[in-house]
Recover the amino acids of this structure.
């Protein structure tokens, strides 16, 4: 039996795959903008961008890669990292959990079924719990600074709230309010519920670009070392932990289908962004507002799948035990 052949992917091959994905997917139809948050309903549905960030810091972008859009649930990833940086991976497993729910992102049922733990920081309940954990407990301004500083370290850019989105989302967050207070009744929220919910809503309203998200993905793929700013942002041991969370619940109730078809752990947001992590190889992000019924961007999914297939990559394939030519050697 032949041994699995190891893959060497060049930057030129990645660039070609990104351009081909863009051309193939740009005219795809299907999906609608999220409408339960009024701001998102009126975003131009034709916006479409893709970025890959290689582990030597090279950015490969096409389309509206510099357009700022609402980060939404992709913000759950950096705050999960922040909570783990502050408390350690073991404590976060105990306090929040790391399980898939198999249910929609804002499911109250998931919380009821789990009895107490919110399951994962990458669903709404767990993300609100993660915001409640951020230090220093009780100080909303200082907590917010910690959340945004962490994102700046992961992306290299200071994130800014899209005020219109924040107002829009704060005016219709009744479901999340219920989750926050249910967590309180279970003793699974670690700060004031309203304060924690507001931080969560604010972080979902941050503006981002595919370039920034791809850098964040590359930092996770690179064991916590940001290849653009050349800084070690978090303990390398946390990288597989957060990637495991992205793997199990990144697409909510469609996570299994996504992994089966794409071969890459990725986290979606109802703003139309998707952040993918290919450990040891690259971070990838795509953005297009129209979503499928589960709240995942239709074109972003197609584009990332195309790139993975064209490059012949799959996180579960033996051939991924590669030395990517794009991977720099570095000292830690
Ligand atoms: N802010 C959104 C909510 O809580 C995020 C949902 C998502 O992006 O999946 O409803």
């Amino acid at each position: 039996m032949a041994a699995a052949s190891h893959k060497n992917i060049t930057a030129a091959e990645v660039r070609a795959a990104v351009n081909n994905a863009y051309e193939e997917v740009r005219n795809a139809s299907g999906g609608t903008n999220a409408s339960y948050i009024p701001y998102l309903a009126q975003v131009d549905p034709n916006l479409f961008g893709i970025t890959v960030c290689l582990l030597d810091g090279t950015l490969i972008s096409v389309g509206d890669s510099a357009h700022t859009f609402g980060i939404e649930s992709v913000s759950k990833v950096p705050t999960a990292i922040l909570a783990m940086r502050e408390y350690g991976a073991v404590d976060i497993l105990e306090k929040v959990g790391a399980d898939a729910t198999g249910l929609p992102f804002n499911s109250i049922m998931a919380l009821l079924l789990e009895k107490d733990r919110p399951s994962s920081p990458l669903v709404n309940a767990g993300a609100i719990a993660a915001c409640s954990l951020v230090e220093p407990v009780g100080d909303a301004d200082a907590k917010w600074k910690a959340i945004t500083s962490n994102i700046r370290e992961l992306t290299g850019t200071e994130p800014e709230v899209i005020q219109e989105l924040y107002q829009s989302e704060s005016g219709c967050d009744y479901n999340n309010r219920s989750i926050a207070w249910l967590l309180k009744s279970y003793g699974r929220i670690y700060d004031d519920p309203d304060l924690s919910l507001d931080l969560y809503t604010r972080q979902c309203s941050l503006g981002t670009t595919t370039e920034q998200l791809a850098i964040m993905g590359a930092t996770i793929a690179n064991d916590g070392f940001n290849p653009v700013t050349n800084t070690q942002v978090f303990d390398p041991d946390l990288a597989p932990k957060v990637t495991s969370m992205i793997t199990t619940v990144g697409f909510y109730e469609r996570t299994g289908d996504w992994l089966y078809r794409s071969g890459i752990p990725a986290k979606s947001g109802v703003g139309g962004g998707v952040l993918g992590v290919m450990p040891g190889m690259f971070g990838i992000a795509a953005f297009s507002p129209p979503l499928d019924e589960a709240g995942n961007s239709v074109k972003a999914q197609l584009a990332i799948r195309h790139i993975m297939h064209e490059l012949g990559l799959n996180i579960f394939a033996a051939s991924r035990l590669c030395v990517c030519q794009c991977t720099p050697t570095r000292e830690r």
Summary: Residues 140-155 form the longest helix (16 residues). The first strand starts at residue 49 and ends at 54. The two ends are 38 Å apart (CA to CA). The chain has 14 helices and nine strands.
